[in-house]
Amino acid sequence: MSRKLVFVGPPGVGKTTLRKIFFEGEHSSHLLKYSLKPTYGQESIILNLNEDIGIFDLAGQENKKWLEGKGKKVFHDAENIIVVVEAKALFEDIYNFTNKIIKIREESYGFTYITLLVHKIDLLDKGELVIKRKKINESFKNESNLSVEFTSITRDYFLHTYSVFINILSAALSEFATLKKFDSNLLRTIIKVLSYFEDKNILSYNDLQEKSNLTNQKLNDIIDILKKHAHIEAYDGDGVNLLMITHEGKKNYKN
Fold it and tell me: What keywords tag this UniProt record (predicted)?
C-alpha cells in the first residue's frame, strides 16, 4: 500500500458516512435518510488513483483499543489521520479527544498530518457555529501539521466538505506530501542525520546510530522516510548494514 488515511473519532459522529460518500461514491441524500449500522473493529478499502490509497475506518466503540492499547499501531505510516468529532459536542470533549491523537502522533515521531473535521455543523445555529469555530481554531492554531475544517453533508455545506476531501486526497498523492508536512523539530533531526554523511558518503547503521544518539525506532523511522524519497540507499556489505547518501539527498539537505 502506497498511502494510508485513517478515520478516527467518537461513536456516531459520521466517520463511516463520510467514507462511503467521498471514497465509495454513495449518495449523500440516501445516507441522510437512512442511518448506518455502527462500525465494529476496523473497515478498510483500497482506492487506486495512480497509486494505492488505503482508507481505514476505526470503530468509535473501540476507541480505548485504538488510543490506549496495541491498536495504536494502526496509525503508523499514515499520511493523514482524519479526526471526526460532532459539532454539538462539548468543546472540552473535542479538545481532549484531539489531543489524544496528537500525543499518539508524537509517539510515532510526529510526521503524520492531522485533519480535524468538526462535523454536522448544520446542527448548530449561526451564532453557536461562530463561537465554536473561533474557540477551536484558537486552541489549535499553534499545533504543527494540523488543520481544522467545519463540515456537513447537507446541501448548504456539501460543496465545501467535498473540497476538503479533494484536498486530503491531493495531499496524500503528492510525491513529497509527507516532507512538506514535517514539523520543524523532525526536519532538523533529518538534516542532522544527513550531516553525518558530510565527510563520508557511506556509513554503517551502527555508526549512524552512535553519532545520532537516536533510539532504534526513531532512527529507523527517519531512514524509512529518506529511503522512500530516494535520499539514501541501504545495502548489505559483507554482513554489515550500510547506508549511502544519494545525489538527491545531497541536493536537498547538504549545504
Answer: GTP-binding, Nucleotide-binding
Say whether pTM exceeds 0.90: no
Largest CA distance in the chain: 69
**Measured between alpha carbons, how far is 21 from 153 in angstroms, rounded to an integer?**
9
Q: How many CB atoms lie within 10 A of CB 99?
A: 13
**Contacts (Cβ under 8 Å, ≥6 apart) of 176:** 229
pLDDT of residue 57 exceeding 70, the answer is: yes
| CA–CA distances in Å: residue 78 to residues 70, 111, 157 | 16, 9, 27
CATH number of the domain at 183-253, out of 1.10.10.10, 3.40.47.10, 1.10.3720.10, 1.20.200.10? Answer: 1.10.10.10
In the chain, the amino acid numbered 149 is E
**pLDDT at residue 59 above 70?**
yes
**Half-sphere exposure (CA, 13 Å, Cβ side) for 232?**
31
The full set of domain ranges for the chain reads: 3-180, 183-253
3-180: what fold?
Answer: Rossmann fold (3.40.50)
Query: What's the distance, CA 20 to chain centroid?
Result: 19
Residue 8 forms beta bridges with which residues? 83
Cα separation of 33 and 233, whole Å?
Answer: 53
The DSSP H or E segment spanning 17 is: helix 15-24
- Tell me the CB-side half-sphere exposure of residue 73, using CA atoms within 13 A: 2
